[in-house]
Amino acid sequence: MLIFFFLIIVSILFYFYYKTKQIRSTLPIRKKWYASTASIFLGSFVFFFGINQLTIFQSTITYIISGIFIILGLAMIIYNFKAAKHYHKFVAEESRLNE
Hints:
mainly alpha, 3 helices, elongated
């Protein structure tokens, strides 16, 4: 139970880190890459929160809502991982062109 709490905190910290990097970035592709990376950690937060709720409460409503959180978190992680992988290909080229 404590490990999920730790993973939730780490996910939130990395989300804010990459969101701050996105806001401070001036290059458009790098900004999109930071946004998708931040969304990966937001999805991991939702995923770990859903699992954590399953360990704390045991009721039918909790199972339904936690299941929704887990599915939504996994969907966010998968979609944004693919987006970050796509944008990462162009980050070095964009940096080279804007020197």
